[in-house]
Design goal:
Length: 93
């Protein structure tokens, strides 16, 4: 489940009581913002996005290069493209 960073967290669409920490499919309808209680009751946590309050941490160049090399060794193209972003992969190899 991928983390999505948000300045403020929405209220759970199901119980309307807690801050939502997931954006995921709901068993009885479309996708919904869900708190931890509503999420565990309805859908496996491998589907959707985890909502994190705040700004996305900045990755150091050393960590990015290590992640790129690891993704290349595993042939993990999704992770590789996420780490490279709009950059040129040749800058990291």
């Amino acid at each position: 489940m991928k983390d999505v960073y948000k300045e403020t967290l929405p209220v759970c669409d199901i119980c309307k009581k807690e801050d939502a920490i997931y954006d995921a499919p709901y068993a009885h309808g479309p996708w919904a913002f869900q708190c931890s209680g509503c999420m565990t009751d309805h859908v496996p946590t491998s589907i959707g996005f985890k909502l994190v309050k705040g700004e996305e941490p900045v990755m150091s160049d050393t960590d990015r290069i290590a992640g790129i090399h690891e993704a290349m060794n595993k042939w993990d193209m999704d992770t590789l493209m996420e780490l490279v972003g709009d950059g040129d992969i040749t800058e990291y190899i």
